[in-house]
Design goal:
Number of strands: 2
Strand content: under 5%
Structural class: mainly alpha
Order of helices and strands: HHHHHEEHH
Radius of gyration: 18 Å
Number of helices: 7
Mean pLDDT: 86
Length: about 160
Amino acid sequence: MNGSSNVASAEARIMDWADDIAYAVHDVQDFYRAGLIPLDRLRRHSLKAEQFIAAAAGFLATKGLDAEKCHTAFLGLQALLPQEAYTGSITDRAAMHAFASGLITRFADGILYHPQGAIREVEAQRYELEVLKQLTWYYVINRPASRPLQARRTARRAGLF
């Protein structure tokens, strides 16, 4: 924080942005390789893609983001998604590396630094990053098969067992 104000410093905001990028990109990459996030199927204009973006945009709207901009952000990301299911081949590993590197660069370019120390996120990249983060929530964290494990963790933390 800057002095006594509640405004994060430029450095803190840049670090938060970098953390968001790193976690979002690498989580999606890892869960795609594990077969939990169907990036290849989401690339095609399918019912799966429509269901995901409707859920993601609906959730993000509760956080004050515009649903139509979320949909546009997904369309921007959709063209970058892998075309085939991950098999672990050398070609797939190279493609995953290129995919992750491309996303990191895309999002890193989404922050503008001004000499006076102020920073600003490019809105299109902020929306894309939020949509990318929703892939992990939609396919992994909120997945029905994950709910019993989450319930046990919550109960343990609450001291119920």
